[in-house]
Structures are given as structure tokens and as C-alpha cells.
Design a protein that fits this description.
The protein is built from 17 helices and 24 strands. The protein is α+β, with helices and mostly antiparallel strands and about 575 residues long. The termini are far apart.
């Protein structure tokens, strides 16, 4: 008892750690229990407190001098939430951690739905020569960052030889690590894109990309090399130890005094991982039913029901976030409810919002790198895919994306102007419900680069629409005005897609939807729509932005027009 008691100074022991209130917190079965403790800065900073772990911890919470202001505000206070966990934070791949994981993983994956595997998937797998061979043909997949140079890729020169033997020393460090993990987990097969796709064969790439949604969806586990920036790094290296912990007294349930260790900033965001900055890896993650994630700090498991650290260690993951797709979307045979269309539309919008913020080495891959997810959505909805936009009853919603920053289009053609895929910067969608405002798509044409990839790259597209269209002008930074110039008119909110060389440009406004307002007498009183401009003085037009919140009366007397967008 004395050793634990001596962790803190006499004042902290008497005023806090020995009190019935603190003992009750230690024994509390509910995480909602709270305790209030007050300590003056003068007392915490006194010499007698220098060896007190609790006083030192409180001093670490004190704001920097530049952030302190004096006045009539309430005294500085800090809420401290304490989470209990075991201490396996840096065991990404140690023998004890691996043994714990094998026991753990067997307990969490058995409840998940198993889908039937097409026989065609058996042809392209790396045999890992398991130490304990599995009688089944189940396989693992790998998701990772390639980097500038990938070693050991399969080419037309060596593809036949690779069906006979595979020299592991010729492969990148990340692939070698993945083979090692596959063996240790008792599996025989591993799917790796660099090896299982003939990298200098355009036809083979197209064929394999067309099956990508099944490859990752049907894997028993997907190994995610989350912490590696390139394939040369590998992902099994020792992790950096977490910050030093603070030891404080703690009362056990039998009223015996012991101690616990505290560390600040226990939250973890998956955004810090290099793998989550790359565009190609998003569909690999979203389509996989089970993920074994070698994160920057520890080993994680994720599925549609769990997102946890090995041994429930610290660095608490903040829920599932934007990490998963609905399970029924991954199973095309599952029944669909009437509400699923709207829900699936919102899922697609969420996916695009995440994907558009990720990096691509080659702009040409903008649509191919999302094609597997698009195929899954099509199998579920039957909607026609138009270069990142779905042609169906909810197409007005899909068209009303906005650029989150001024950017230039890609130097090469990736998509039509009305698709978010035409830009190299993140896009977002407003959270609004509306109904089409006399808006109709009359024809839609898309020219595919290859028929093998109906959700992949395109060479051209057009969208013919019928809608109410009126002239106006866009004024920097974010407003559009209709009709004649009026100094008192501040306009309504608008967002432009690309950088403009001048402060004001003429535009055409296309009414797309009527949106609800808070006024019950006029439930659909505002209009959202597209801003467009002619293409080189031709009869065709291109999208240049969006507007939101125009009055319905601004378009009420306008006749409908027929416009073709490129």
C-alpha cells in the first residue's frame, strides 16, 4: 500500500485519492460516474508537489502562457476521461502478440456472413506454403501503398514461370511481410495485385480489375499495411513506444490499494495512416469483409460490427466512421427494402466525398480505382453508371456536388464536367432534401475505353437535359446574381469548380431541385442548381459550378430549355 500511496503528495492523497468519492469511482460499474476535484495552480506548483505524479499530470494540462487570458471567466477546468485497457499498444507483430491475435481472430470472424466463392478466383493466388496447411481454398488479400518502384511485379516475360515457383527475395518488403503473416495465420493463399495481375498487359489488367469487387469481398481476411508509405518499407517493424505513462493510486474492488498507469491523448484516427491517403486502397478496404490492419501504433481488426485494437489496447478507435459499407450492399443476393435506394445514394455520396480527397499517381485511374465499388452499387440498384454519377431517380442529387477548393481540371481527360471525377480536388455534397424542379435527363451517352470495364475509364460523355435556365453572373468569391447588375443585390451562395482569371464571369443557372425551408407556408421555396457556360461558342455547355438557395420566384417565369452538357 505504501508504494502506491507514495506516488502522490500528502495533500493529493488526503484531498483526493483517499476519499470515499474516489474509491467509488474506482469501483464504479458505470462509465458515467463523475467526480469533481479542485486544485489551485499555486499548490500544484509548490516544491512539495514536484515528486507527485498527480500534480505533475495536472501541470501538463495547464495551457501555454500565450493562450491564457484574464477576466471574469470561470476558473480553468479540465474534464479527464479515463479508459481502462491492457498494454499491447506496440505489439504489431511480436510472438506474444501473434499468439494473442490467432486466438482473438478465431473468436470474432465466425459470426460474419460467408459468401460463395466463384471458381474463377482460384487461378490467381500466391501460394504461401503454410506451415500448417489449410484444407480449404480460402485466401487472404493484401492492401498497401505501392510507392514509386515496386519490386518483383509479374510481367508477360515471367508469368508462366511464376505458376511454377516464386522467389520471395525478389519481392518488395511489404509483400514478403504479407506472405510471412499469411503463413503464421495458417493460410495457404495470398492475393497480391503486383503478382496476380500481369502489370505490362493491358488486357489482363482490364480483366482483373473487372473482378476486383469479388477478389476483396471474398477474401477471408485483407491484410492492410496501413503504416507503410511504400512497398519497400514493409509493415512489421517495431512501432514507436507510446508517451510515458503517469502512475497514480487506484483502489481495487476488494479495497486493496494498487496503481494504474495513465497516458493522455488516447484517441486514434485512421487518417494518419499512409494507406488511407491513396485512392486505390479505398475500395480494397470498403469491399473487404474483414481487415487485419497493421496500424502505426498497434494491430487492429475491423469488420462491419467491430473496430478494435489487439487486446483492447489504448489509442481508442473512434467508431466505424466512414470505414465500412453496409453488409447487404456487399451481398447482391440480399433483399432490398423500399428505403434502400435513398440509403444507397447517401452511401455513394459518402464514398465519393472520401475518395475524391485521396491521391492518385496517374489521373487516368480516377474512375478505374473506384470501379469495383461502382460495380457493387450497380449490382444492388440496377442504376446506369455515368462516369461517377448514377442515372436514376436520384440523379439530381448526384449532380449537385461542389468543389471544396478552387482547382484546375486534370491535364488529361478523366470525366465530363458534370462529374466530380473531372477534378483533382475533394468534393462535398450539401445535406439537403429536395424534389426535382421540372428537371429531366433526356439522353445520356458514355464512351467506354473498354467494354470489359463498364465502370472504368471513359473517352467521352454527354448529358442532354431539359430544365429551366436563366442567365446571370458569378462574382468572386462565392455568389451568383441573376438579371441586371444591382449594387444592392448581394446574390446567393455559389461555388465555382476551377480557378477563374477574372473576378466576374457570365453564367447560366440550371434549376435542378426545389428544396425545403423552415417556412411551413412555402415548403419548397428555394432552388439549387448548376452553373454552366458555353463550350467555345458552340451549342454545347460545360458545368463550372453550383448555386444554392435561389428563390423559386427567380425561375418561376422562365421557359424550359434543352441543354447538352459535356
Amino acid at each position: 500500500m505504501s508504494a502506491s500511496k507514495n506516488l502522490v503528495c500528502v495533500r493529493c492523497w488526503q484531498d483526493f485519492f483517499s476519499t470515499p468519492a474516489y474509491k467509488a469511482i474506482c469501483a464504479a460499474p458505470s462509465p458515467d460516474e463523475r467526480i469533481t476535484y479542485t486544485a489551485s495552480t499555486a499548490l500544484v506548483e509548490r516544491p512539495a508537489s514536484l515528486s507527485c505524479s498527480w500534480c505533475s499530470f495536472l501541470l501538463s494540462l495547464k495551457p501555454e502562457a500565450d493562450n491564457v487570458r484574464y477576466g471574469d471567466e470561470e476558473p480553468l477546468s479540465t474534464d479527464i476521461e479515463v479508459w481502462y485497457s491492457s498494454g499491447y499498444d506496440w505489439e504489431s507483430f511480436t510472438p506474444p502478440g501473434n499468439n494473442r491475435f490467432r486466438i482473438w481472430i478465431n473468436g470474432v470472424v465466425t459470426h460474419l456472413t460467408a459468401f460463395t466463392e466463384p471458381d474463377s478466383l482460384a487461378a490467381r493466388r500466391v501460394t504461401a506454403r503454410s506451415i500448417q496447411p489449410d484444407a480449404s481454398d480460402t485466401y487472404l488479400a493484401l492492401s498497401y501503398c505501392w510507392g514509386p518502384h515496386q519490386r518483383g511485379i509479374t510481367t508477360t516475360h515471367d508469368v508462366d514461370a511464376r505458376f511454377e515457383t516464386l522467389e520471395e527475395t525478389e519481392l518488395s518488403r511489404t509483400v514478403q511481410d504479407a506472405i510471412f503473416v499469411t503463413r503464421r495465420l495458417g493460410y495457404r493463399y495470398l492475393w497480391v495485385d503486383a503478382i496476380c495481375i500481369i502489370q505490362d498487359s493491358r488486357d489482363d489488367k482490364h480483366i482483373e480489375l473487372s473482378r476486383m469487387n469479388e477478389i476483396y469481398r471474398l477474401a477471408a481476411l485483407t491484410i492492410v499495411a496501413a503504416n507503410a508509405h511504400t512497398s519497400a518499407e514493409g509493415f512489421l517493424a517495431d512501432r514507436q513506444r507510446p508517451p510515458a505513462a503517469t502512475s497514480i493510486p487506484f483502489w481495487a474492488s476488494d479495497s486493496q490499494l494498487g496503481s494504474v498507469h495513465m497516458r493522455p491523448e488516447g484517441w486514434y484516427s485512421e487518417d494518419v495512416e499512409p494507406v488511407n491517403t491513396r485512392a486505390w486502397t479505398l475500395q480494397e478496404k470498403l469491399l473487404s469483409l474483414r481487415l487485419l490492419i497493421y496500424a502505426d501504433h498497434t494491430l487492429q481488426y475491423q469488420c462491419n460490427e467491430h473496430y478494435v485494437n489487439l487486446g483492447d489496447s489504448l489509442n481508442i478507435v473512434s467508431g466505424l466512421g466512414g470505414s465500412r459499407l453496409p453488409l447487404h450492399l456487399l451481398n447482391a443476393a440480399a433483399e432490398q427494402s423500399p428505403d434502400d435506394e435513398v440509403k444507397l445514394a447517401e452511401e455513394w455520396i459518402r464514398v465519393v466525398s472520401i475518395y475524391s480527397g485521396r491521391a492518385l499517381t496517374y489521373p487516368h485511374d480516377k474512375l478505374p480505382a473506384l470501379s469495383a465499388i461502382a460495380r457493387s452499387f450497380h449490382q444492388k440498384t440496377g442504376w446506369r453508371y455515368l462516369a461517377g454519377v448514377w442515372h436514376g431517380p436520384l440523379i439530381p442529387r448526384f449532380l449537385l456536388w461542389s468543389s471544396t477548393d478552387y482547382a484546375d481540371p486534370y491535364d488529361v481527360y478523366t470525366a465530363p464536367s458534370w462529374s466530380w471525377a473531372s477534378l483533382c480536388n475533394p468534393v462535398a455534397y450539401r445535406n439537403s432534401e429536395g424534389v426535382p424542379y421540372e428537371f429531366e435527363v433526356t439522353t445520356a451517352d458514355v464512351t467506354l475505353e473498354t467494354d470489359i470495364l463498364p465502370f472504368g475509364a471513359i473517352t467521352g460523355a454527354s448529358l442532354a437535359i431539359s430544365a429551366r435556365v436563366r442567365s446571370g453572373r458569378f462574382v468572386k468569391p462565392q455568389s451568383v446574381m441573376w438579371g441586371e447588375a444591382n449594387e444592392s443585390d448581394s446574390g446567393m451562395y455559389a461555388s465555382i469548380d476551377a480557378k477563374l482569371p477574372v473576378d466576374e464571369v457570365p453564367v447560366l443557372g440550371v434549376a435542378i431541385i426545389r428544396r425545403k425551408t423552415e417556412d411551413p407556408t412555402e415548403p419548397y421555396a428555394v432552388i439549387d442548381g448548376l452553373l454552366i457556360a458555353p463550350v467555345d461558342h458552340s451549342t454545347f455547355h460545360r458545368r463550372i459550378g453550383v448555386f444554392f438557395g435561389s428563390l423559386a420566384t427567380d425561375f418561376q417565369e422562365i421557359e424550359k430549355s434543352h441543354i447538352t452538357l459535356l
